[in-house]
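Hi there,

I know you've been waiting on this one. I reran it after we fixed the sequence typo, so this is the corrected version. Both the input and the resulting structure follow.
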Amino acid sequence: MRPALVLLISYLRPRGALHLSLVLLLCSLGLPARAADIQTSAKEFDRYFRQLMKQKEIPGGAYVIVDGDQVVAMDTYGVRIKGKKGKVDRNTVFRLASVSKTFAASMATVLEHEKKFRWADKVVRYVPELSFKTPSLSRQLQVEHLLSHSSGLTPNAYDDYLEDNKPLSKILPQFANIDPRCTPGKCYGYQNVLFSLIEDVIYKATGVTYERQLKERFFVPLKMDNASVGWESFMAADNRAAPHVQTGRGWRPVKVEKEYYFAAPAAGVNASIADMAQWLKAQMGYFPKVLSPEVIQDMTTERVETQRHMRHRIWRDYLSHAGYGLGWRLYTIGDDRIIYHGGWVAGFRAAVAYSEKRKVGIAILMNAESRAIADLTANFVIDITGNGTLATAAAAANK
């Protein structure tokens, strides 16, 4: 029962059974009805989750559903490593891949609101070695453009260098060979290398490393006990999931690559599903001392349209608008906005999304590169916003 109702019942109980009956009637007609709806959605989701995990033969995964500041459901599936006995549990650590961007943007927004730097600051002030083919264009690049993917560059510029395990210091000189397709701030182009330059901005503006900032400002106060940054921290975790890739004989465990860990703000955070429950609550405003309402509003204010995302096979029948804020995708569905991000890196998938209006969110983690995570996330969102049902999605998956 919610704290406000407990307080109301405590206040009215001495005033007689009639008053208490009135409160119980209000409960039956009000908040618990909504809670019952969420419980129903959670049970439907669990069936759909297990159905797809089994159907796709995914080795292991976990999910959490949060309603306001309450965990409605948290469960796990399968094993950490295919062929081994160790099961996935609520503390099993996964790579978050690009869901890491939500952490980098949150940290940067907190610091910007503390006036450690400004969104309009030129990136070259903090990363002087960055230069485009036309140097004047690189001098137009602002800190805000890094986190909103609005540098104007071709999407995923030099990600292939990251995949060759090259550090950012070896990649940055390559930008002198290219120019943006449009003026910085005017068009969308998803980036990992450029996004990760926020790490330099944070360190030079504060004198504190990015990893330490996340630990002290987020992980510790939010009690995200399994969360960490970097390859070394992931490998040091005893209870960690192994990455799996699809082969002709099904999913096969592979070694943990360092590649995208070189771009820590873009793809370097590790966490368990228990950690993600706390992260969802914080993003929805239930830890205001960690993420203030002003910080959340700033992050979720659209900086650039991403219209091509409205053509995605799952979302296209439901979205009326798509954009990007700071580290978050912003999808409009009916009278609601969905704050969302997905992640995909060798052997792992991750997703996190919440309804801005209804304050209901979900996070899903998998130790395999399965597209099933997109179906699970989108269909849950469609269900809670009243635009479809999970039962229909599950029936379709059976065909």
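Quick highlight: The chain has 16 helices and 13 strands.

Best,
R. S.
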